[in-house]
Amino acid sequence: MPVSDAPTAAQSQTVALPTGLDATLTWAGVTHRGRKRDINQDALLTSYPLFVVADGMGGHIGGEIASASTIDRLQRMVGKGPVSPEAIEKALVKAVRDIGEHPDTTDEGTGTTVTGVYLDITDEQATWVALNIGDSRVYLERDDALVQVTTDHSLVQELVAAGRLSPEEAENHPYGNVITRAVGPSEGAVPDYVRLDVRDGDRFVICSDGLTKELTDYGILHFLRLHAEPEAAVDAMLEAALENGGRDNITIVVLNVSVPGQGPEDEGPTTQDAREQDDRVAQDATDTAGVPVVEAVPAAEADASSTGGDARE
Predict the structure, then answer these.
(1) Which tens digits make up the pLDDT trace of 18-50?
(2) What is the pTM of this model?
(3) Distance between CA atoms of 271 and 147, rounded to whole angstroms?
(4) Less packed terminus of the chain by CB within 10 Å, N or C?
(5) What is the rounded distance in angstroms from the CA atom of residue 150 to the CA atom of residue 169?
């Protein structure tokens, strides 16, 4: 369901995989205005098999229109049939039209990020497909380590990729809010895609930059390790982000994956295999433009603020 300014209680669904095993997905999400913004321009969708976050931008209420229009079109798409890159892109084209035709869209900079994952069970092996436009993010916790799956479409990320900024310098760069791609009347509507194998024990975090402005990757990993249930993890991250400043709208989805009885032969293609099988995949999720894997650390070391999370200055 699409949500704005309200938490979603934990939900669960069991899915039959092509291998004959069952996967149980459990998720929860929340979106919050934060402490500094007058309105919430974020929105989210948690409707199996698609889980996405949209972070709107634009004058007046333009950002709210953009994110809500995008989530609405994606929800309609989920209700009509299988989710695929083609279906997503058609829905985004319609969202761009809706945004442009809305009477309150008065700013040429009106647009939204859209970032998330969906489960693809149409092939012999099930895979996750991450999608991204903008600087909202998908993280994957696997084997007690955290990796950023998506690559930000932002000016500072381009500078990092070009070797002109270090990741540490990028965190507090004055142009940190400048994105290079969005869903909107003056932008395209084609996401980057990353295909991932389905693994028992995996956990996804999908979030707007309102979270990553306040918690580092170590902070996110810390709260995942402290809270096994998605609802508790979402609540703890939101509380920490608000205590650390809450400078922007904050949206978080945590998705747990359980595949009882899964062995190595059931895990499906590796990320690299999936990349070779699908020419739509833009990058290998294990090497996302140099984004480092965050290894697990003892809780005492990760407790870098009064809330137990690593605050971003």
Answers:
(1) 999 999 999 999 999 999 988 999 999 999 999
(2) 0.83
(3) 13
(4) C
(5) 19
